[in-house]
Structures
1.
Amino acid sequence: MRRCGFTMVEMLLAVLLVGVLTSVAVATFNAVSRGWQISTDYMDKMQRTDFALNQVISGLRSMYYPHDGQQDDRYGFVLTNNGDGEDPDDSDVIEWSKTGSAIVGNKSAVADTVHRVQVMILEEGNHDYKDRVEVTGLYARQCPDVALRPKDNPDDIDFSFANDEMYQPVLISDGIVGFNCRVLKTADEVQSKNEERSFEDEFAESNSVPYKVELTFRIADPEGRSYRSNTAPVMRIIRIPIHEQSLDGSATPASEERKGGGRKTPRGVK
């Protein structure tokens, strides 16, 4: 007599096989979905970081220095070195004078005038300023040029960035958890064809601007961690157009006077 159907053992094996295949399919789907989400978040952070980096680069390239024949510490580049920039606590702070809408935006009241900006990393919960910092990221502060500040100051108000209550930081981009800046002081310090060794973490000459500036941003991991030195940083090197003028305001970088090699030794620059 011919037997039809499946035995109980065959049915159990079939159910077990279907369960294993379903578990593998679900795990694979979740892994792919998670990987897609992480990649999407990472690309989004990269785009915002690239935008922030381009804003800072545009701001540095629009750096302002008066052409009045002398060096002026009110317009010099200032670098506060706090570490390697791997997290907010050891990130650097830079400050300079500029023109244009980069960093401050087209609608800012100072966009059409000379103004000073300060760029830094601030961590969520920071209470150093008038308003609490809501999200970790790259921030900027802006203040009017010295020439535009009130001449009559009976209350002796400090209009510099040292007055934390005066200028509230504005978010440029979140997701950036670290910032490091290094400078190449002068073109004379380039060693052979490799200028990497010549970049320094300090710039003591606050009455001038460096020859080149190296910016390194570190972005936040989509899972809430932060990328450290074992990952590729987002880095750019910018040539500062008015470097020569800041060393000797009496001659523009392309003038015949400078080409003649008669530049005087500026004070404060070794």
2.
Amino acid sequence: MSTSVIESKGYIASIEAPFIQEMAEITHHMWELGWDELNGGNVSYLLDEEEVAKYINILEPLRVINLTFPVTELAGKYFIVTGSGKYFRNVIKDPEANMGVLRVSKNGESVEVLWGLRNGAVPTSELASHFMSHIERLKVDPTHRIVLHTHATNVIAMTFTHDLDELKFTKTLWEMCTECLVVFPDGVSVIPWIVPGSSEIGRETAKKMKDHRVVIWPQHGIFGTGSTMDSTFGLVETVEKAAIVYNLIGGREIKQKITDQQLADLAKAFNVTPKAGILNV
């Protein structure tokens, strides 16, 4: 990968920036897993200004894109996001064409493109859902940084065959793998089917983000959040693994499973608090 230097300003704009590398690697990995076919899936990553300024000229935006939804809570914040209509399999080959670094304007009504999104490309069509989710997660977790949306295959399949009550859905996932309750004691949330790319689906997802790090979109995919790329991907990966086990069991008779008492013992051993209303102990 090449590095370009903007000599007149003394900035180094490099696709070898750690945050660009992380995005390229994680999108490629999700594509390899079969979670992000065609242009499915999108990721946004909240960045520190100091970190961005090491690699990108933040004084001269390339262009401005108006938002259809104001995000005053994110005014002045920096993000790297995947582009609309871009294929995850291509990100690692040409990051600058498939991703962009943005800064939210001071009034929160537009974003300034600082790097990437070449040839007039625009941010993901799910930007509303991402920004709204960032706003809610930052209220409860100041270390929050990542919103990751992917079409995790087995999670989608599970939404066809399982009751979509989120307490029941969570309990089933907890019962599939011993690690699940430890990884997501806050459970998963589920919203109704809503047209993707809309402000409505963004608002409904954000409501759930007040209490959860995982939101499932029935017949569509999953939204996961976290403070690092590794922890966020690991969270989604664990939910997907539990869904795989559920789907493998299918309609076969279950002769033994993790009991409510065992789940409670597990929570005590790992010092986590299970979401209320699920375990009967």
3.
Amino acid sequence: MSDRKYRQRGYQDEPRGRERAAPKPHQPQAPRERPEGPKTPNLMASHEVFRCSRCGNRLALPVDADSRCARCGVDLHSCIQCVAFDTSARFECTQPLTARVAPKDARNGCAFFTPRTTVERQTGTQGPTTARQAFDDLFK
């Protein structure tokens, strides 16, 4: 009978005096098969968009000091539309301000103002302009 409780092979079955294999030296990679490089995936095009932080309306750049959103009427040259606006930062701004600007959605003359833009993907097709056109396109 064996002195071991279980019959599986374990670390005790192998000899302890074995040598570890030396690491293999790094070999240079073979040149690429295609001279132009790997094939890139087909990605959708993207573009920068400036949207109103209140209603999400798409707006034009650059932003004038006295411009307002056409849909909701909020001032565009304000803290809530700025890249530096951060509710967790001191004075709710990541820039070095000496005094708090309040209210955040009102027009101000801050020198640090930069409009907050986002990168959005461009889709290939535009939606129908009217419900009638959508119906006609459905049953062509």
4.
Amino acid sequence: MNNVVVTINRQYGSGGKTIGMMLADQMGVKYYNREIVKLASEESGIDEAMFAKVDEKMVNYSFFKPKKVYTGELKTPDSDGFTSDDNLFNFQAKVLKQLAEKESCVIIGRCANFILKDYPNVVSVFVHADHDFCREQALARVSIPEKEIDKFIEKTDKFRADYYKYHTGAQWYDLRGYDLCLDSGKLGFDKCVEEILAYIRVRFDD
């Protein structure tokens, strides 16, 4: 196996992003989170701000039905819908595939586990934790009044789940879509990283 890609989906406050950064450091590879937005903008020529506006959240669909599940199609600049939310997603997906084909890396969110599900070099992880742990982590991270933090966590996770369902037709919480599901509240960040590395060694041991 020439390169290994780890995708991480995460509940808000579970520390999935921190675990991803720690993992990338341990593996000696690049970490991609919002960098995907920049790369998709460069790939498409579409303003980066348009990608950022819909990054892992639904904006234009209050009551949506899942679209045709992502299959890799891209609209050209002279086509209607070139800057639509669907096409922005498609360009991000193209970038994810390019990364998976050329380098080892850690990718946060953006339906990467679904987009790369047929790649044999991809390890998909879902990081979760109980409410109290996520709440504690969120309060330490964002400047939001304590009385509003529960609603903020719920809203953020709903954005991610709706975004995932719309673009993939699948459920964000469906554990069948992941190789590993880790409770960061019970394991702690360091041991989550250890578990992912152990899985990689077992699965790709030559």
